[in-house]
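Customer escalation, tier 2.

The customer says the design service returned an amino acid string that "doesn't look like it belongs to this structure." They asked us to rerun it and document both sides in this ticket. The original structure tokens are below, unchanged.
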């Protein structure tokens, strides 16, 4: 009886996505779905918690900030709370926030998006992630850019949204860093998929292992008014 319940549970659970689609077909659907969601997203707000830890030096720091992203993708940040090493907060965490703010103002999203013009894609299989079926693709950057990732992406098989990115920068960001490993996870918020957690681990030549964790929460999204009106007119 126990075996029967176990078997039924396995049969009733999610199964990996079908591999009948090719890598170009998956990427085409992924890009189209992302474009549609981006066109519908009128902006959003959320909370960020940045945590830095270097065990060798014993330094830790945290910064909590409220982020507002407008319909054009421009981001602003308001620091709500911070603690720990002042040097780390001022020279690392605040610099990270400022760099993201400046990148959004310059409209650099297109240059760093996971698109065919930036990457080669290879389908390596399927996997169940957080209870949902995903396609797993290898990413091979076409240029050595520190903002591009060499690794893998997990693409949700139902909504063709990127659910996870894992790998290392295509170009080492600093002479003093031996390696960096990044895991970016996304979560579904209504019709949109937004960052949920980012964990970066760097091996530095002098300071050893350093970890930076960013946790995202309390999203509030808005849909572009023109899209809402068009949908109402179609009813």
């Amino acid at each position: 009886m126990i075996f029967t319940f176990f078997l039924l549970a396995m049969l009733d659970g999610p199964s990996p996505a079908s591999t009948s689609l090719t890598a170009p077909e998956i990427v085409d659907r992924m890009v189209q779905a992302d474009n549609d969601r981006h066109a519908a997203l009128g902006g959003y707000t959320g909370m960020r918690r940045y945590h830095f830890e270097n065990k060798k030096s014993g330094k830790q720091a945290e910064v909590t900030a409220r982020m507002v992203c407008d319909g054009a993708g421009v981001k602003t940040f308001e620091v709500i709370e911070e603690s720990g090493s002042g040097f780390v907060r001022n020279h690392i965490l605040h610099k990270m926030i400022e760099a993201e703010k400046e990148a959004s103002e310059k409209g650099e999203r297109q240059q760093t998006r996971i698109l065919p013009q930036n990457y080669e894609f290879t389908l390596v299989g399927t996997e169940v992630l957080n209870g949902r079926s995903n396609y797993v693709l290898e990413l091979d950057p076409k240029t050595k850019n520190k903002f591009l990732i060499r690794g893998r992406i997990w693409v949700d098989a139902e909504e063709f949204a990127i659910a996870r990115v894992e790998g290392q920068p295509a170009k080492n960001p600093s002479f003093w860093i031996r390696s960096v490993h990044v895991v970016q996870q996304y979560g579904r918020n209504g019709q949109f998929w937004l960052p949920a957690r980012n964990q970066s681990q760097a091996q530095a030549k002098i300071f050893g292992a350093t970890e930076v964790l960013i946790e995202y929460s309390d999203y509030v999204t808005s849909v572009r008014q023109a899209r809402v009106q068009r949908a109402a007119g179609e009813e």
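Tier 2 assessment: The sequence is consistent with the input. The domain at 27-234 is CATH 2.50.20 (outer membrane lipoprotein receptor (LolB), chain A). The two ends are 51 Å apart (CA to CA). Sent an explanation to the customer and offered a walkthrough call.
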